[in-house]
Amino acid sequence: MTPTLVVENLSVHFRQRSGAISAVRQASLTVQPGECVGIVGESGSGKTQIFMAAMGLLAAGAMAKGSVRFEGQEILGSPPGELNRVRGSKITMVFQDPMTSLTPHLRIGVQLAEVLVSHSQMSWQEAERAALRILERVRVPEPQRRLRQYPHELSGGMRQRVMIGMSLLCEPSLLIADEPTTALDVTVQAQIIDLLRAMREQSRMAIALISHDLGLVAGLADRIVVMYGGRVVESGGVGEILQRPLHPYTAELLKCVPNLLRPRLDRMPSLAGQAPSPSSAETGCAFAPRCPRVGERCWAERPLLRDSPAAAHQFACHDPLPA
Amino acid sequence: MSAAYRLRSNPGAACALGIIVVLIALALVGPWLNPNDIESLDWAHVAAEPGLIGAHWFGTDRLGRDLFVRTLEGTRVSLAVGLAASAISLAVGISYGAVAGYAGGRTDQLMMRFIEVLSGLPLIFFVIFLTVVFGRSQYLLFLTIGAVGWLTMARIVRGQTLSIRQREFIEAAVASGASSARIIVKHVVPNLLGPVIVYATLTVPQIILFESFLSFLGLGVQEPHASLGTLIAEGAGEMEAAPWILLVPGSFLAILLLCLNIFGDGLRDALDVKER
Question: Which of A100, A103, A119 sits opposite B177 (nearest CB)?
């Protein structure tokens, strides 16, 4: 079976007056059909840029090297016309902020129907009926009325449901959810995650869930890819990563997840130091300045991604935690 | 609060709108209210003062033509030129500005430099040149004024497009596979209509004034038709002997321009709360 998405040795640079900025450095990852992969990392770790490259949405001035293949077809460097046939129908994206992702002057029904009309040559009536069905599926209350409303008349949670509904309209094979709950209340977050889980069970689509929230990813993903400084530092099955992290960064991240059942602490645990600057040249391991297990070798030599002896689990560290 | 409500609660703008509507209505039906027409010469009452004699309510000009009918006819022509030329500059300016702003980069730079070259040309000379080459027709007047009027509109539209292009719903539209043309037409242009409409209402009086100026120079509307500019030009010659020939069309022009400007300002305040 062809994997849904293959990213191979992808590097994304931005040229600026002050020099080049490397957002992604030789990252590789694979998303299989029907699989949910969680991409975890701090701000600036390059997690969003990988998928921007996969959608052909990189900002002007960005240069991507390597390869991104969707269902066997190369995405990098393909003409916009070809990209437009894929994005919105085969690959769709749910953005972080539902408050600003809908065009303010068009009714919800028109925005939903437009996607179908432009991608599958449906008539407007058919498309409106499909829009109604999709609103029912993503559990928007009173869908008939919502179709006639404008985005500002809907709450944030409802708008994010509309966005998810819009991304499901053409039955995509890959849904990219870029921090889909960051802008929402905690209670609404849980509903959105439930919704994504339900949608995933109903259709055989793959999901790439980009988040800095390990708890969120743990609840939905089959596999987790941890990114640091533009590189993949660890990847593996969800249980494997959460229970037996090998990379010290992953372990530190897990310590930072707040737990209501633990005794109350005076301070929230946090990772000391700063994330590496994407403009700095790297020698050795990017995590070395913040790593509790840092050694001589870490400063001199960059660790390569290697397989752990246990199940499908990869990590990039000279001195991994004991399994 | 809706924009319509804010506009109505602004007494100046509401009055101005009322007067504009009355003037338009007069310009459309006025000539039929009076038994005289624009061409016939009343030799018995040459340069008559305003009054009821011969139904010359606003008097007559040097050739005995009725000023009431001619002024309303002139108002109609001036309004028509103003609206048509604004429509042309609106259409050209929006498409040019939106394409330049959305394309960005080198295309944008080239398109904007072209506008700067055009705005460097002396406007009057340009229009005079065109009327001399293509002859004096009313439609050419619409075209030439419209053709030079779109430059500022294109700049405004480009500026708005640049800021709209950064908004997330545009990125979302790209991500859902919409082509650039579709994004410009459906997602960019409707969102910049607010400032564009305001600027357009302020363009109409500018263009009316410009047309009057051209007609005053004798380059605009030709006899026997009249625009406010040609009427003012005629009146200026008789200023001392028969001041009403100048004052009647002059006050029509002044009132029309004042009201259009006040209305445009009111519309800007009503549509854009931030500028208050």
Answer: A119
Contacts of B180 in chain A (CB under 8 A): 80
Question: Residues for chain B: how many in total?
Answer: 276
User: pLDDT digit string (tens) for A6-47?
Assistant: 999 999 988 877 778 888 989 999 999 889 999 998 888 888
At A137-152, the pLDDT tens digits run 888 889 999 999 999 8
The yes-or-no verdict on residue A4 having pLDDT over 50 is yes
Task: Say how far apart CA B132 and CA B223 lie, in whole Å.
Answer: 17
Domain range B3-275, its CATH number among 3.90.76.10, 1.10.3720.10, 1.20.120.680, 2.60.40.10: 1.10.3720.10
CB contact under 8 A, A55 and B168: no
What percentage of chain B carries pLDDT values higher than 70?
Answer: 93
Per-residue pLDDT of A86-98, as tens digits, reads: 888 899 998 888 7
pTM: 0.76
Residue spans per domain, chain B:
3-275
- The minimal CB distance from A105 to the residues B173, B176, B190 is found for B190
Across the interface, whether the CB atoms of B174 and A57 are under 8 A apart is answered yes
CB contact under 8 A, B190 and A118: no
The upper half-sphere exposure of residue B86, i.e. CA atoms within 13 Å in the direction of its Cβ, equals 21
pLDDT digits (tens, 9 = 90+) for A199-251: 888 888 899 999 888 888 888 899 999 999 889 999 999 988 888 889 999 98
- Chain B residue with CA closest to A85: the answer is B177
Measured between CA atoms, how close is A80 to chain B, in angstroms?
A: 8
- Is the pLDDT assigned to residue A264 strictly greater than 80? no
Q: For B250-255, which contacts have Cβ atoms below 8 Å and span 24 or more sequence positions?
A: B252/B23, B252/B71, B252/B74, B252/B75, B252/B228, B253/B78, B253/B208, B253/B209, B253/B212, B253/B228, B253/B229, B255/B19, B255/B23
AA identity, residue A321: L
* Residue A137 three-state SS: helix
Whether residues A88 and B171 touch (CB distance < 8 A) is answered with no
Query: Could you give the angle at the alpha carbon of A24 between the alpha carbons of A23 and A26, nearest 5°?
Result: 150
Residue B112 pLDDT: 93
Domain coordinates of chain A in residue numbers? 91-169
Residue A55 pLDDT greater than 70, yes or no: yes
- Cβ–Cβ gap A57/B175 under 8 Å: yes
- Is the ipTM, as predicted for this complex, more than 0.85? no
